[in-house]
Amino acid sequence: MSALPMAPPPKSALARYRILSPTASVRVSPLCLGSMNFGDAWTGWMGSCDQVTVENILDYFYSQVDGRTFLLSSAFADGVKGGNFIDTANNYQFEESETWIGEWMKKRNVRDQMVIATKYTTNYAAGPNAPNIMANFTGNGTKSLHTSVEASLRKLQTDYLDLLYVHWWDYSTNYDFLIKLLLIGDSGVGKSCCLLRFSEDSFTPSFITTIGIDFKIRTIELDGKRVKLQIWDTAGQERFRTITTAYYRGAMGILLVYDVTDERSFNNIRTWFANVEQHATEGVNKILIGNKCDWEDKRVVSTEQGQQLADELGIPFLEVSAKSNINIDQAFYSLAADIKKRLIDNQKSETGAGGASGGAGGVPIAQAGGSGGKCC
Q1: What pTM value is reported for the model?
Q2: Can you identify the CATH homologous superfamily of domain 177-351?
Q3: Which has the closest alpha carbon to 326: 181, 203, 187, 188?
Q4: What would the pLDDT profile of 302-330 be if each residue is shown by its tens digit?
């Protein structure tokens, strides 16, 4: 018998654990269980999901066995290994979500088997027993972070968090421009890799395409102005033709990406461009990106073909390589610079060169939407 036997094939697809991030050695189930509805506090908005129901959902997600049998037999312990990844937030259901997840983990003694993601920014203390002064229970400052993490650890009945991330933009912090960018193109052209290279300066050939939509943030400086880029990646959506008006709405710049080793992805750019023209805001800035330019031996789309298409569409063009980090920064910086210039020109034409107000240098911050209301 081998000293290091191979693990048997998983009986549940939820047990095919994968790397959470190219730079984080954490393994999670392919589906993350969201818990925004775990609680009774928001019943009027989301419907009821009491604690018994929540624990049954968690039991089944974890073991693929109905949790109601847990105390009556060994079925739970003998169940198929399932999901280990749960997402919550400090304010969900006025703190019931984190509290009930913590109680479930303690009852089942499974804390170290689970990967728990939670979020801060929203005022978690704004429930029925809200304190008199709540000014610093919200936002992304260090005080809000400290109080929120302390509260989350207490509710989850743990002494560590696996993943903590920002829930919202902190709209009270200083920047001169907020610009929303959107990456579109066929599946497999490297949109996610381009985003990862620009936002985190990392690349992995084993990166697994996410079915969903995600965004990353990077703040850059252009002409002495702080420009915060909110970059949305539509990875996987194109497979099911679910990129709709909602994803184009509010985008101020769009990167149309093809793979220089895949002629079909290049030919489909015209279709993507037509979708942009139909759904995106009028006047949105665009740039054509030919990715994987380092693969010269596999290239089927020439640089000249890319430039000809860009000229036909009337947009800038760059070839890049996420793997070799060729022209990635230049692509995002040049698009952001074009958008910034357009915003300034529009403001001047609307108010006059000296009449603008409300933002640094007379240019108002370009907001991509408010942070009010409830969301995931």
Answers
A1: 0.61
A2: P-loop containing nucleotide triphosphate hydrolases (3.40.50.300)
A3: 203
A4: 999 999 999 999 999 999 999 999 999 99
